[in-house]
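User: My notes are a mess, but here's the protein and nicotinamide-adenine-dinucleotide's SMILES. Can you give me a structure?
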Amino acid sequence: VIGSGSVGVAAAYASFVRRIASEILLVDRDVARAEGEAMDLMHGQALVGRIVVRAADWSELDRAGVVLVAAGANQKRGESRLDLLTRNADVMREVIERLDRHAPEAVVIIATNPVDILTRLAVGMSARDESRVLGTGTMLDSARFRALIGDHFGTSPRSVHAYVLGEHGDSQVPIWSNAALGGVPLSSLSSLWSLDETTRAVIEERTRRAAADVIARKGFTNLAIGLVMAELAEVVLSDQRSVHTISVILRGEFGLSGVALGLPCTVGCDGVVGRLVPELSEGELARLRRSAELLDERARRAGIA
Ligand SMILES: NC(=O)c1ccc[n+]([C@@H]2O[C@H](COP(=O)([O-])OP(=O)(O)OC[C@H]3O[C@@H](n4cnc5c(N)ncnc54)[C@H](O)[C@@H]3O)[C@@H](O)[C@H]2O)c1
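Assistant: No problem, the inputs look usable. Here's the predicted complex:
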């Protein structure tokens, strides 16, 4: 785990409790912070099992199967994720350069924001195969969307299939046209069950605003993204080939190329092993194109092509 701040530690904690690896190494330029977090987790080892968590140097990452990247500045109240770009692009350049040297075989999973543009930067820079670098993308947004839909129907979010695509940020696109409850398309539910326009608008807005709502209260978000990162790490380490809306560079999907954004992909031991291109309504497609244009424009302005 690169970066032992609030997100890196949440990812390490979730990975530790879920026992997805035999060893978890914490790397941070603030070495004391990484050491303190590792010590704190190790005091729970008797309750979890023999998983070693320790602070480490980059040079010790050579046997890592997965690297979770959460190094860099987080949003402050009122800031957007895109506002972090200049600060975190330099962090990402340093991280990828070091990972290529010390962990060339690992699958790299990036959460640092703005995650889509930094994934594009990382894929472009890294010597490893493109499929072995991915961003957490809209996986957290999709989880929030599913939870809100599940809540509306009094149903577990695990029985809700619904995606948010595009930017992990304000231009994200919730996809209603193929959302389903227990395999039944929402569009075909009886009127008693269906979601009216107002409820949909409220769910969309709450999904989009979710991080800001948390930041306004506790100052940062970390717990749910930690679960997302641990889940992706487990999917890679045990080759689960499950589908998640992660950030990848589009290669012709929806007629778009070169820009990284959230797309449903199959993830396994080699990273991204498949891409799904859902059929979208005209309105959703137009919104996705606008999201891609915005990300592309911001990346180019920052010299990331
Ligand atoms: N993708 C998502 O869904 C999502 C959700 C929440 C937060 N985030 C992002 O995760 C990132 C981390 O957030 P946080 O709250 O943990 O921040 P934080 O400030 O608590 O921690 C960041 C850590 O990174 C370390 N660091 C900075 N540069 C480094 C470098 N070059 N090498 C090694 N370590 C370095 C710092 O020392 C610090 O410990 C932010 O960019 C935030 O926006 C993403």
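DSSP finds nine helices and eleven strands in the chain.
User: Great, I'll file this with my notes.
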